[in-house]
Structure formats: C-alpha cells, structure tokens
Design goal:
This protein has about 70 residues and is α+β, with helices and mostly antiparallel strands. The protein has helices spanning about 25-30, 60-65; strands spanning about 15-20, 35-45, 50-55. The chain has one domain (about 15-65). A hairpin with a 5-residue loop joins strand 2 and strand 3. The chain starts with 14 loop residues before the first strand and ends with a helix. It comes from Thalassotalea marina.
C-alpha cells in the first residue's frame, strides 16, 4: 500500500492496514474454508475502511480444510 493513500471521506492520510480471510460459497462455505483473503485499509481519523483482494495459496487452502 502506498503512503499516498487519502481517505475519500475525510481526506486524512493516516491509515492502518490489516488482513482478513473469508469463506466463499458452495463447498468452501460448507467446510468453512477461508479461501478468500483481503487487505483492509482503515482510516485512523474516521475509520472508513476499504478492502483489496489478495491472493491465496493452494497449500494454505488445504491446511485450512484440515484445521
């Protein structure tokens, strides 16, 4: 994430980032496989949040199935 990010709501340039994992639909939902990863960019001023899709690995998905 670039340091040039600006909040579209309050125009603050201060932010935090975090990563979340979610399930999709179908079999991944039934087996609770969190095969969709996102990076969240959170404005420190107003808490506006944007999500950006990340990539997942096959090994990570297999490991998630068995845990």
């Amino acid at each position: 994430m670039t340091s040039k990010w600006k909040c579209p709501k309050c125009e603050s340039t201060k932010f935090d980032t975090d990563t979340i994992a979610t399930t999709g639909s179908g079999w991944s939902k039934i087996f609770d496989m969190q095969n969709r990863k996102f990076t969240a960019v959170i404005c420190k001023n107003c808490t506006y949040t944007e999500f950006y899709r990340g990539s997942t690995s096959t090994l990570g998905n297999v490991f998630d199935l068995f845990t």
